[in-house]
Each structure stands twice: as structure tokens, then as C-alpha cells.
Amino acid sequence: MADQSNTIKALHILAYGTVFGSNMHQTLLNGPMGLRVLPRAQFSHFQQNIFPPYFAIQSLLPAFLLWTLPKFKADRKSVVALGTSFGLAVLNLVFVGPRTIRVLRKRTHQETKDKTRWDAPGPKSEDMKRLNWSFAVWHWFSFWMNNVGLVTLGWYGTLLAKGLLGQGIVKVFGTIY
């Protein structure tokens, strides 16, 4: 934006902190901690309910960041970093995430039909083998898309910091900052 107000600039920084922080928190704390301390069924229920709003935030905030991109940072690298994060989050929100959840629910239903857990030792029905493979593939895609999004957000953060330091904080944000 050519002549951004200080409010828009401050909102840009807050939005970046929120999207990067929530991604770090979900990826490095909530997921691993939940898997470790919650029973599998509760962890699965938690993940199925947290991911739609999480990926919505991971989609909306990079779009806002692109819209409010500071004029000193409106370069190709920033657009690629934020655009990649945005695109991967949207794919996770509307396609990969719902697909993963659908397969997970089918697998849970298959456990009831087979009268055994998906990870129980011993032979598995052909349907369970297919669902286990399908879940592993979709979960892998979702996991890596989220992690690449985290890396691109970190990359944008370094670009933003360079711009702020190169421009001088007072020059960029005005005399209040």
C-alpha cells in the first residue's frame, strides 16, 4: 500500500505475530503435547475440531498480510512467502483437511465393523489396510503443507524484520513507535 496509516501498519505486525505464533503453537506444542497426554480418541476428536478454525486463521491472516504489505516490503520474496503460506492453508482448509478427517472417521467406523483397533497387532481386513494407507497419505500431506507454511511465515518474518531495521522503526511507523 502506498501511504499506509500507522493503524494498518500496526495491524500488519499484529496479524503476522498472530499467524506465525498460532502456527508455532499448534505445530510444536498442541499437536505433540496432545498426542502424548490425551487418549487417542480424545486427541483425534480435539484435532478434528481444532483444525478447521486453525486453517481458517492460517488462510485469512496471510491474505490480510498480502493486502497490507508495507511498501518497503512489497517485493517478490514477500509475496511468494505469504502467497505460499496462504495457498497451502487454503488447500488444507478446503481439501486436504476434510479428506483426512473423512478417512479418519471411516477408519473409526471400520474398527467397529472389524471389532479391532486400526493399530492392533495381527492381520487386518483389506478395508482397514486401505483406510490406514489412505489416512497416512492424507495426514502426511496435511502435516507437510502446514510445516512448509510455518517455514514460509518464518521467512516472511525475516524479510519484514530486515525491512523494519533497514528503514528505521521510527521512519516506518511514525514518531509513536
UniProtKB/TrEMBL annotation:
It is found in: Membrane. Pfam families: DUF4149. Residues 14-108 form the TMEM205-like domain. The keyword Transmembrane applies. The keyword Transmembrane applies. It comes from the Eukaryota. Keywords: Membrane, Transmembrane, Transmembrane helix. The chain crosses the membrane at residues 50-67, 79-97, 135-156. InterPro entries: TMEM205-like, Xanthocillin_Biosynth-Assoc. This is TMEM205-like domain-containing protein. The lineage of its organism: Eukaryota, Fungi, Dikarya, Ascomycota, Pezizomycotina.
